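As promised in the previous annual report, we have extended the structural survey to additional targets. Below is the entry for Zn-dependent hydrolase.
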Amino acid sequence: MSMLEPNHERLQNTLTVLSDADVGGTPGGGVSRPAASDADKSVRDCFVRITQGLGLQVRVDDIGNIYARRAGTDDSAEPVVIGSHLDTVVPGGRFDGILGVAVALETVALLNDSGIETTRPIEVVNWTGEEGARFPPAMLGSGVVTGKWSAEYAQSRVDAEGLRLGDELSRIGYLGEQSNRLTAFHASLEAHIEQGKHLEEAGADIGIVSLIEPVRWCTITVTGRGGHAGGSGPRQRAEAIVAAGRMVATARDLSLDADDFTTTVGTMKVEPGSNNVIPHRVEFNLDIRSSDDDTIARRLTEVTDRFGQIGREEGVEVQVEPYWEMTGPEFAGEIRGLLRRVADERAVKWEELRGVIGHDSLHLSSMGPAAMLFTQTTNGLSHCEEESAPWESVLATAGVYANAVLGLANS
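The corresponding structure token record, generated without further manual editing, is:
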């Protein structure tokens, strides 16, 4: 197998360009780049310039996914899909998603440097709205391509200000045509930081991901009775916020006792939201995760049953609305085997591990053979300005990734 060697300086420059201040880089060293924002437009423009400079043909689909295609000698063959996402949380880090795009661009640059033609075409993709930070739910772009959602549904998602994703993509010039969508692929490979400490603790540079553990999201609406803070005392109240607070703590306590699932509440909306008014309505989102679909279903039932009990005790109404789920199929064994062989040939220490955070590759695995390669993360920090990865691990990832893509594109 040809051993492509990453260009250190070029890869570092690509990472810098994709996280500079003019594309959403923050003074604290991170990146704030919500989907379809002005900063997202700037980085998309940058991505297009880089890919066109590499000789790739660029197209945009009807949910804003950008595809940059390197032709194959058999250009009618199904492509190898590489890349990741460039949107971030606010504030986010300079590696999450960005590293996967940079490593994909470096792979194409290495093939060009060596004058290597591949049998299959290669498509570098920047997926729209992976984070779901501005327009939930997460992984919208890959979800549309794989049939999880319709384009109409995805385009109609709104942000906190009521702006529609479709309108914002149109505003920044990245709402393309349905005919440009990816419809099939031979293999898909995504590189990403681990967002955990497994690799760091194992002293491994890369992780070969076996599967992504399942996640479910629910909206919990608690409706009580409002009133003036100086009115009825606590025994006469039906306080939505007290009930909601008990629910959040109870979900956490149940997860501690069971030790096989986790719950997170990251948003809470209180109405009317005044210091001297008893809230009559509280809405919060529950994220629940476990190692398999059966466990997560069982634990979600236990948690929501307890929510109902708390509602009865507090004299409030409780509504539970599931609205998004992520199942956990295994990634393609043949691609994982190739990654192991390439890593061993390059004397790169690797570990097999399970992913616990959603990525576009999860959706892609329902469409064709897909896999993921994780890079060691420093102190497990992600989704923050302190997010980092050891440079040696980044280079190890880039080397394994490029050579695996070469193998896939000639298979």
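The first strand starts at residue 57 and ends at 60. The chain has two domains: 8-213+328-409, 217-326. These points will be discussed at the next consortium meeting with the crystallography subgroup.
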